[in-house]
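Saturday, quiet lab. Running sequence design on the structure tokens for the scaffold JK sent over.
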């Protein structure tokens, strides 16, 4: 199984190399050279069994199936629910796929738990150590900290904007107690953290010296791991029943994973609606074919405050008939001018891929949280509410609606209380979170200082 770049010029690599690299050297994203065909999940097959089969198919010869199974068993043994991604019914013809039973209560755990196992295994085998650096607006940092805590071959450096993540989000990052997890609170915003990470990758000398790697939304291992719950949902709801997935979206990794599951034969058909907040970049992209750079708006669903959905590039690559040159040209134009338009021929194919997007206003999101608890007695997080609100207004096509619940309500208690007047407690397994000691270091928006701190950890200085 080989992986090629969406920009067409990077040499093909195997699964492990693609995952450890993150971005391809030509600036593109890795995708399988051809889609493996995988038999659908069977009712009664456990999550770990399905994950092992699916991830083995993506790994090809790079990992033997017994190794993949061991990695999956360790990764998914950390979930509080035995099904890992259980379904609950929200209404007639509407189910919620709960993806928030991992250690940090967000769906990022599903991919991050597997990635950490994969990295530690692959690097230990190669006798290497890497520095994983990630910028976070909240959920990714916590999921990465929980997953990499105690890993033997990885130092994790998390950059979060100081005082701009929620207290619960910060606690998940800063209280692991593990000495390979390093939290840097940057006196600036998320974009500044992200820009610092990008600058570190661009500095080839520094990147080489510290063995820099990234686990952000474009890492192929994340997409591969997320395709698994689409397969288990299909099996649980009846193997040949058409499903329509409603996916709260930001960088579109989650929705892309559904598309990938379908291409690999894991779904009976494919339809996914990306539910977005007032940052309607994806809705605009699907409706007009136009991409444009702009500042993101702060909304009640902060994990989706994104104006350039990074995984869209993989969708575009498919829509363009896997023409890497066309993708490279488009993203070049975008990088130079801050705007680009998808050619008409590609838009035609894009319209036939089963994907679309719908935006929900901030007011409608809060109203949906209140309505949901009134109808079901359950509290949902604001990201999930963007999804259920979209589901409520979709035309009936006979398909069963499945909305992905991307975080636990307790991760956003302030918004839950504002929308519903109800207090939401952390699940018992996280109850000690507020009593643990927090460890983080504050930095100004000073790239050199952050770089020196990483070097100091790596050289033991
Ligand atoms: C990351 C995140 C999303 C968006 O997922 P993408 O794969 O980036 O589209 C939605 N909800 C929550 C809670 C998240 O943490």
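Result came back. Writing it out in full:
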């Amino acid at each position: 199984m080989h992986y090629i770049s969406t920009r067409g010029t990077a040499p093909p690599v195997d699964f492990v190399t693609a995952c450890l690299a993150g971005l391809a050297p030509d600036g593109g994203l890795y995708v399988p050279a051809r889609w493996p065909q995988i038999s659908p999940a069977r009712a009664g097959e456990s999550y770990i069994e399905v994950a092992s089969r699916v991830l083995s198919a993506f790994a090809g010869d790079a990992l033997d199936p017994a190794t993949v199974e061991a990695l999956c068993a360790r990764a998914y043994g950390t979930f509080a629910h035995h099904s890992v991604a259980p379904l609950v019914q929200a209404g007639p013809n509407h189910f919620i796929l709960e993806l928030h039973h991992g250690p940090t209560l967000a769906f990022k755990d599903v991919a991050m738990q597997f990635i950490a196992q994969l990295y530690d295994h692959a690097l230990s085998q190669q006798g290497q150590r890497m520095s994983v650096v990630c910028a976070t607006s909240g959920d990714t940092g916590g999921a990465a900290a929980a997953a990499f805590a105690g890993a033997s071959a990885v130092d994790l450096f998390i950059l979060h904007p100081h005082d701009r993540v929620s207290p619960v989000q910060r606690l998940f990052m800063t209280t692991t107690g593990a000495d390979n997890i390093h939290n840097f609170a940057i006196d600036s915003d998320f974009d500044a953290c992200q820009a610092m990470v990008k600058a570190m990758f661009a500095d080839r000398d520094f990147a080489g010296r510290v063995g820099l790697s990234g686990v952000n939304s474009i890492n192929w291992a994340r997409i591969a791991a997320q395709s698994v719950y689409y397969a288990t949902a299909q099996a649980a709801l009846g193997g040949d029943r058409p499903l329509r997935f409603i996916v709260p979206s930001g960088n579109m990794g989650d929705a892309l994973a559904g598309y990938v599951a379908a291409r690999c034969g894991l779904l009976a058909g494919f339809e996914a609606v990306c539910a977005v907040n007032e940052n309607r970049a994806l809705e605009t992209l699907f409706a007009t074919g136009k991409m444009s750079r702009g500042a993101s708006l702060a909304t009640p669903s902060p994990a989706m405050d994104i104006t350039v959905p990074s995984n869209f590039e993989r969708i575009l690559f498919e829509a363009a008939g896997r023409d890497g040159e066309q993708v490279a040209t488009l993203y070049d134009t975008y990088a130079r001018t801050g705007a680009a338009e998808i050619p008409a021929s590609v838009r035609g194919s894009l319209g036939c891929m089963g994907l679309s997007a719908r935006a929900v206003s901030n007011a409608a999101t809060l109203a949906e949280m209140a309505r949901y608890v009134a109808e079901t007695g359950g509290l949902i997080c604001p990201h999930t509410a963007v999804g259920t609100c979209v589901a409520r207004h979709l035309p009936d096509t006979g398909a069963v609606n499945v909305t992905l619940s991307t975080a636990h309500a307790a991760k956003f208690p302030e918004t839950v209380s504002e929308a519903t007047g109800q207090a939401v407690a952390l699940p018992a397994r996280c109850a000690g979170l507020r009593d643990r000691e927090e460890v983080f270091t504050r930095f100004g928006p000073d790239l050199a200082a952050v770089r020196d701190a990483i070097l100091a950890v790596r050289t033991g200085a």
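Notes for JK: The chain is about 45% helix and 15% strand. Residues 106, 108, 139, 217, 248-254, 303-304, 383, 406-407 surround pyridoxal-5'-phosphate (CB under 6 Å). Ask whether to fix the surface positions before the next round.
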